[in-house]
Amino acid sequence: MPEPWKDEDTTTPPKDYNLVVPDGWFKLSLEPEHRDRSIVALAEQQFHGVDNAPLLKEQVMRELQKTAKDAYQAGGIELFVSTLRVGPLPLSSSLLVSFPMPGTMPSSSDVHTFKEALSRRGTKATVVKLSAAGRAVREFRSEAASPSTQLGNELPTTTVKFYVPVPATEEWLILSFSTPLDPLARQMVGLFDAVADTLHWS
Fold this sequence. Notes:
By secondary structure, this protein is an alpha+beta fold. The protein has helices at 32-46, 54-73, 111-120, 185-196, and strands at residues 17-18, 25-28, 76-82, 85-86, 89-90, 94-98, 124-130, 134-143, 157-165, 172-179, 200-201.
């Protein structure tokens, strides 16, 4: 069990972070030189034994390519995609870990100030305490699906973001969880919260 990052440990920045994700979440490489190979591997895994859906497989790969490219350009460092299923139902969800681009986040690492800024925009934001990583701002959204990116899904997409200040720096680490499974949104959000709570600095 990692030691909690104490509030007084403010003079030494951590060297890295660690996060525990569920079994069945595929780590998709965002680095351009590894991206295509990683996407092919995920598509092969997802469509294993399915020989009658080449167009859907191609569409999924295109969407993964766009998602990975956009994530990388926005400062993404890790992207996890769920391959879990309950019977025939895929438990679709994803987690993007990113360091935002310079100038896109407040220079202050004060979570209460940032939470208030989000709230003024009408965002549902709260300050939470992660067990080992310290205080963070949690943002919750439920948005109408985009037909161009949700492969026909018309249900709202639930997004939960954790903005975590990196100790002894002015940087933020963002954990961005998303799922299009509106009927299971409450359960998926519970899972997202549990994953975020495993974040710890090293």
